[in-house]
Amino acid sequence: MSTLRFSSLRPLILDRIGSSACHPRFLNFSRWIRTSSHKSSPLAFAFDIDGVLIRGPDALPSAKRALTLLDGHNRFGVKIPYILLTNGGGVGEHERCRKLTKLLDVNIEPSQYIQAHTVLKSVVQKYADEPVLVLGGIGDTVRKVAEGYGFKKAYTTLDVLAWDPAVWPLHKLTDAELARTKTVDFSKTPIKAIFVFHDPRNWALDIQVACDVIMSSGIIGGPYQSPSNYGSSTGVDLVFCNPDLIWRSDFDRPRLGQGAFRDAFQAVFKSLTGTTYPHVQYGKPTKPTYDFAANVLKDRLVEIHNGQITNAPAPHVYMVGDNPESDIAGANAAGWNSVLVRTGVYDPSQGPPTHIPTREVEDVEEAVRWAIDNEFEKMGKL
Question: Which homologous superfamily is 126-281 in?
C-alpha cells in the first residue's frame, strides 16, 4: 500500500475494541451479571460470511444454530453482540442485509454489516464531485452503490464502451447493458480515481480501460504519459476493496477473487510500462478495514444498549473466518481472538494454516460455543 499519495484515503482510526478481563468491574462477575439491567456480554463476534455462515446460495446449518445462541438462547441467558465482516460486496448494504435476513432467518441490520467497499464511505468526501471509475458487479449496480455513498460522478467501463465501442471491440454491448449506461464524453472527462468495488465480470475490458485511464492521466484516448509521471500529484488514484486471491462458493474448489484481478491488472500494466502502479488496498486483512470494523462494533454496542454506555468493560472480540490470509491474519494483527473454521477456503488436508488462529474448529457453531465457554470460564461462571 502506498503511504504517501494515499494517506488521505485511510479512515479515521479510533480506539480499538478490547480491554483486559481483569478490569475491576469484572472482579465479581456473578454479581455484575445479576445486577446489570442490560446483561452486557463479556464477548462480541465478527463473522465472515462466505464459507462461515453461507456456502453459495445456501445457509450452513451450523450458522442458524450459532446465531440462535447469540440471541440469548445460551445457558447464561445473555444476548451477545456481533457484526458481519466480509470481503464480498457488489450490492448495497440494505439489499444484502435483506437477503441475509431471509437466508439466515434472523434480522441483520445494516448497522452490523460491513462489506469490502463499505469503508469507502469514509473517503467519499475527497471524490464526491470528481469523476471516478467504479469497477465490478453486474451492470450498473456498483454505480448505484457508489452514488448511494455520495460519489456524484461515478462511471463504469460499460459507459466507456457506449461512448466509443472501439475502446474494446471484442465486447459488443447488449441492449440491456446499453440501457444502463450514461452518456459521457470521456475525452473531456478526466477520471480522478478508479475504485474496484467488487469482482469484475469482464477482466479484459476493465484492465484495458483502467490502463487507458492511468497511462493518459485520466483522459481516455489522450496521449500516454511517461511512466516517470505516474506517481505525480496529477496521477489517478487506484483503490482495490478486496485482496482475496480466492474465495469459497458452492463449487468444490475455491474460485478466483478480486485479488486475482488485481494481480492480473498489475502484470499487464508492468508488461506495458515496465513498472507496477501504486494502489491502496482495503478489505481484510488490512488495518484500515479492521479499524473501521472496530468502530462499527463500538457503535453497535451503543445501539443495542439504547444509546447508553454501560459500566462494563468493552467485550473481547472473536473473529470467526474460513480464510487464514484475510480473516485470521487481520484479526491477529488487530489483537482480536481468531477462530478458523473448516467449512470454507481453509482445507486442513493441505497443511497447517499460513496464519495461526487462537482456535481451529469444525464450524461456526463450535466456534461460538467455545468462545462463550472460554469467556464465561474466565469470569468464574462455569
Answer: HAD superfamily/HAD-like (3.40.50.1000)
Residue 169 neighbours by CB under 8 Å, 6+ apart: none
Tell me the pLDDT band of 13, cut-offs 50, 70 and 90.
Answer: very low
Residue 20, phi then psi, degrees to nearest 5: -70, 140
Q: Which helix (H) or strand (E) holds 54?
A: strand 54-55
Mean pLDDT of 151-162: 98
Q: Residue 45 carries which side chain, given as an amino acid letter?
A: F
Q: What are the CA-CA distances from residue 310 to residues 124, 292, 314 (Å)?
A: 33, 22, 9
Confidence label for 231 from pLDDT (cuts 50, 70 and 90)? low
Q: What is the mean pLDDT of residues 354-367?
A: 98
Q: What CA–CA distances, in Å, run from 260 to 179, 198, 242, 243, 365?
A: 30, 12, 10, 8, 31
Strands, E assignment, 190-247: 193-196, 237-240, 246-247
Using CB atoms within 10 Å of the CB of residue 11, give its burial: 0 to 12 exposed, 13 to 18 middle, 19+ buried. middle
Determine how many CB atoms are found less than 10 A away from the CB of residue 248: 25
Pairing status of strand 280-281 against strand 316-321: unpaired
User: How far is it, in rounded angstroms, from Cα 33 to Cα 40?
Assistant: 7
Place of cell 492521466: 217
Domains 12-116+285-378 and 126-281 belong to one CATH topology: yes
**What residue ranges do the domains of the chain occupy?**
12-116+285-378, 126-281
- Integer Cα distance of 70 and 48 in angstroms: 15
350: DSSP letter: G
pLDDT at 12 over 60: no
Place of cell 491474519: 329
Class in CATH terms, 12-116+285-378: alpha beta
The candidate with the shortest Cα–Cα distance to 61, out of 105, 96, 97, 98, is: 105
How long is the chain?
382
pLDDT at residue number 233: 57
